[in-house]
Amino acid sequence: MKVELIAVGKIKPPFTEAEGHYLKMLKPLMPVAVTEVKDDEALGRKVTAARATGGNSPDPGTVVALEAGGRDMTSERWAEWLDQRRHEGRRLTFLIGGPEGIPVEVSGMADHRLSLGPQTMAHQLARVVLLEQLFRASKILAGQKYHL
H-helix or E-strand containing 95? Predict the structure, then answer.
């Protein structure tokens, strides 16, 4: 399954090292491509271009907006949800907004809205938490121990 994370802004220390750590651990299980965009408008353009028929952009497949009001899931449920997406055979594109979150018009383009928990967190931290949850779900699906 192809997985892409489209995030507003460049990752900065101290989050850079943690993101790299999880991307490396995910590589043999579920490689994740990270695309950074400048701002909310660029995020919207990226999704719109990918959804356009006949364009040069790849089909984004299933688009998932990560936002505070999204659906909460346990790690086990994340694994089940990812397994369902994997069986659909489509690309999985996660969206993480900037400091103000994902604009309503961009969120409206998503197929799913998920939350990483009820608390508010920095958008750069959300990137790391998402990658950790993808790693954990991948290990659960592989029947492997996932506690580090």
Answer: strand 92-96
Query: In sequence order, what are the residues at sequence separation of 6 or more whose Cβ sits closer than 8 angstroms to the Cβ of residue 34?
Result: 4, 5, 7, 19, 23, 127
Q: What is the pLDDT of residues 19-44, one digit of tens each?
A: 999 999 999 999 999 999 999 999 99
The DSSP code for 35 is E
Within 8 A by CB and 6+ apart from 77, the residues are none
Any idea of the CA torsion for 90, 94, 95, 99, to the nearest 10 degrees? 180
What's the pLDDT at 14?
A: 95
Bridge partners, residue 96, by sequence: 7
Starting at the earlier edge strand, list the strands of the sheet with 32-37. 32-37, 3-8, 92-96, 62-71, 112-114
Q: What is the pLDDT of residues 98-122, one digit of tens each?
A: 999 999 999 999 999 999 998 889 9
Q: Which of 71, 127, 62, 60 is nearest to 99 (CA)?
A: 127
Superfamily (CATH) of domain 3-141? SPOUT methyltransferase, trefoil knot domain (3.40.1280.10)
